[in-house]
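Design job #97: recover the sequence.
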């Protein structure tokens, strides 16, 4: 629902109604793990829809409320099921995002401490845990979007995020393919905008992002998110041609972006 034009508020209403029902349930010991996963993910999704970095309502206050709820649920799950790598990684990601919101400045030492924690969880979980790989990919992506980090750390973070998102996409899940492709395109666009990277490499990143987003629009022609992402990618590629003094090509891309 959230992919449709104006679908964000509708998706929020649906998920909030589902959470209200879930909170009234008393799961049995046998279903406790699945219950915590479900309600934790629902709260995390609401946080993204209200105030996530992409295609959200921009309501940071409500996003913070749901982010705090998700953190508490993941903490409960990690405490109750300490050997479950999924709960460990979800709790770790929620804890990192919580600190990221509160911390005004970052340095490489703090980043490396968190990086070591995530890598330890991935190492323990193995290479086939999609959920754990997704959490470390999101961790790196969130580090990259932090403008307080230095340029080299941001490049490293986006490149690592891209590498993990590619590993996830290679698992070939048709059900998650649209999201997998979007996850790859997002760090590509950010990398294209980092001036510490060589211009030719930045242009290749932007070209790949455009190709991916064109494919996504073909797959989901009714998705406003896919179209918006394509417009952003076209603009990013246009910027690269403008930097290279190819104004004619840049204008063509800017016009296509504006038309979307």
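Job complete. Output follows.
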């Amino acid at each position: 629902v959230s992919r449709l034009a104006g679908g964000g508020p509708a998706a929020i209403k649906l998920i909030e109604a589902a959470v209200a029902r879930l909170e009234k349930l008393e799961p049995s010991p046998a279903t406790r793990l699945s219950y915590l996963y479900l309600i934790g993910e629902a709260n995390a999704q609401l946080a993204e829809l209200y105030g996530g970095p992409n295609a959200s309502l921009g309501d940071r206050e409500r996003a913070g409320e749901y982010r705090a709820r998700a953190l508490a649920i993941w903490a409960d799950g990690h405490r109750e099921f300490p050997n479950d790598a999924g709960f460990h990684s979800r709790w770790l990601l929620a804890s990192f995002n919580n600190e990221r919101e509160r911390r005004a400045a970052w340095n490489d030492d703090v980043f490396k401490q968190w990086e070591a924690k995530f890598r330890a969880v991935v190492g323990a979980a193995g290479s086939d845990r999609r959920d754990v790989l997704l959490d470390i990919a999101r961790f790196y992506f969130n580090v990259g979007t932090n403008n307080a980090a230095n340029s080299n750390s941001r490049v490293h973070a986006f490149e690592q995020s891209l590498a993990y998102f590619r590993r996830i996409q290679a698992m070939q899940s048709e059900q998650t393919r649209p999201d997998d492709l979007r996850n790859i395109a997002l760090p590509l666009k950010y990398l294209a905008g980092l001036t510490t990277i060589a211009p030719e490499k930045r242009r290749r990143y932007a070209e790949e992002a455009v190709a991916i987003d064109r494919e996504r629009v073909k797959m989901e022609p009714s998705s406003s998110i896919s179209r918006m992402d394509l417009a952003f990618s076209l603009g990013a590629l246009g910027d690269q041609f403008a930097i290279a003094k190819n104004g004619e090509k840049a204008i063509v891309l800017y016009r296509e972006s504006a038309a979307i």
